[in-house]
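Action item from last week, closing it out:
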Amino acid sequence: MLKDNNKILKALVFILELLAIGLAAYLIIMPVWPALKYKYFQLNQAGAAEAPDPKKTASQTEPPTNPLPAAEENISLNRLLIAKIGVNAPIVEAKNSEIGLSRGAWRIPESSTPDHGGNTVITGHRFKYLPPNNLTFYLLDKLITGDLVSLSWKNKIYNYRIKETKIVPASEVSILEPTAQPTLTLYTCDPIFSKKNRLVVIGELMEEKP
């Protein structure tokens, strides 16, 4: 009887050890999973570009002439769309930052809106929900000059091209200032899990669609 109890105890300990190892691995992998997934898709796309299908004609292999992303159908009003990094988040209108950031991408109330021109400033959590999640700015650092960002706002699509990315101290407020030209400013915490700095991405309006 004692031997049987010892076997059961050892089995339980072994199972608990496996669960602990699995939980530890999960906690380690989850924070970096979006970056790993992004890298994987980038490598796949690069491989596909290097090895075009010989059965396709020259016209089929040529890149599209329209550099701006096509608007998705049935998009709900007021959304931020960044196809490159998988962001598709509602733009939340709220006076309280905690409420705004908990629901998606929060437009700074003092900033402008796309239909009025000027500087539209939107911020989001870098890491909040279990990744991958299309509401966070986890991969915002992957955006570079020339990349495209779209806003769906009051039944119109506003396409912006990134012109600048930078890191500024959290105390920097110049990114919130009005601009003469229609501008989109996105920012989030940097580095991840720290509020020391802000990762800022600035885009200029390229196209407005009904």
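Closing note: The helical segments are 2-29, 33-50, 58-61, 97-103.
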